[in-house]
Amino acid sequence: MKTKLLFLFFAITFSSFTYDNVYVWEKYRLQITVPDDFEVAKNTDEEFEMEGDGMSLAISIFSEKITLADLEEATIEGAEAIKMTEIDQAHATKINQLDGFYVEGYLDDHRVMFAGLMDQRTKTTLFVAITFADDDANAEKEAFKIINSLKRLK
């Protein structure tokens, strides 16, 4: 009986455990870690997109040359350009080698975390949008994990 209970405990524990996958956008040597259900939907020189269960991720390069001082305004303008509503105040962030700002808001009844990030070494600027259901608390935690996993490789 104890053996069956122990087996059941391990089966439940490991069946609910999710593995994360690491992807690299080779063009920009940008590494990102996402839940195991994410799949690459687009991978070009300008855009990298992934879809997961109830979440989506889009990364695009901002081609205009700007300074870090201008990035806060550019992030808010980028969020407005994709038609986000109820955009909150921009928050400064430093994610590994990337400096920038992020805002949260809504797009078509979905929550969006939108970030403008700059690699100070190469002056490459990118926008990241993670979209998820408003009522999914787990997705919000996953969105923060995803955005905090971004890393420029050398």
Q: Topology, pairings included?
A:
Layout: H1 2-15, E1 20-25, E2 30-35, E3 39-43, E4 47-52, E5 55-62, H2 68-81, E6 91-95, E7 98-107, E8 110-119, E9 124-133, H3 137-149, E10 151-152
Antiparallel strand pairs: 1-2, 2-10, 3-4, 4-5, 5-9, 6-7, 7-8, 8-9
What does this structure look like?
- This protein has 154 residues and is α+β, with helices and mostly antiparallel strands.
- The protein has one domain: 3-Layer(aba) Sandwich (Protein Transport Mog1p, Chain A), CATH 3.40.1000.
- The protein has helices spanning 2-15, 68-81, 137-149, and strands at residues 20-25, 30-35, 39-43, 47-52, 55-62, 91-95, 98-107, 110-119, 124-133, 151-152.
- It has a 7-stranded antiparallel β-sheet. The chain has a 3-stranded antiparallel β-sheet with strand order 1-2-10.
- The longest helix has 14 residues, at 2-15.
Fill in the keyword field for this structure.
disordered N terminus, Protein Transport Mog1p, Chain A, alpha+beta
